[in-house]
Specification:
Rossmann fold; 46% helix; alpha/beta; 4-stranded mixed β-sheet; 5-stranded parallel β-sheet
Length: 193
């Protein structure tokens, strides 16, 4: 564990491969821990409560938001998403570097609150490839798919506000690049500390 843990925020459009790359990061760098975020959307068939997300009703979400339980929150694609403040603070307090996988709105809010956070944007190789990935995964209705595709262009325009951009053109190469960035930032953080 690190005496001065770092917060990494990873964003990118739906279908960019954030989950795949973060899973590889967590597998290969054991001192990095993912903070589980909350959402009001329905779980996908392969998602587990407390592992992928905390699935909340709209009412549960609103109560937590009103109590100040969230580090950040946003309405994305018609559903609420948020980062539980206590989970991030606990993991950092235990000495873990923490990874948040959140949307661009949430990333901007985290950077305001914690300017030392490192923001990494995962981008698909092209818009056409992103559309194909979304269609292949068959997890959204036609309407949800259209919302995600239209949001992707807006999200990708914000990539320049991030500290790093990783183009996920090939999973192994992109995962290696992500891990190299995390390790470089962690080493720089230790040398400054």
């Amino acid at each position: 564990m690190d005496a001065d843990p770092k917060l990494f925020v990873i964003s990118g459009p739906s279908g960019a491969g954030k989950g795949t790359l973060v899973a590889e990061l967590l597998r290969r760098v054991p001192s990095v821990s993912r903070a589980v975020t909350s959402t009001t959307r329905r779980p996908r068939p392969d998602e587990q409560e407390g592992v992928h997300y905390y699935f909340l009703t709209k009412e549960e979400f609103e109560r937590g938001r009103d109590r100040g339980d969230f580090l950040e929150w946003a309405l994305v694609h018609g559903y609420y998403y948020a980062t539980p403040r206590a989970e991030v603070e606990r993991k950092l307090g235990e000495g873990f570097d923490v990874v948040l996988v959140i949307d661009v709105q949430g990333a901007a809010r985290v950077k305001e609150i914690m300017p030392e956070a490192c923001l990494i944007f995962i981008e698909p190789p092209s818009m056409a490839e992103l559309v194909e990935r979304l269609k292949r995964r068959e997890t959204e209705t036609k309407e949800e798919l259209e919302i995600r595709i239209s949001a992707a262009a807006l999200e990708m325009a914000l990539a320049k506000k991030y500290d790093y951009v990783v183009i996920n053109d090939e999973v192994r190469r992109a995962a290696n690049e992500l891990i190299e960035i995390v390790e470089r930032v962690r080493k720089r953080n230790k040398s400054e500390g």
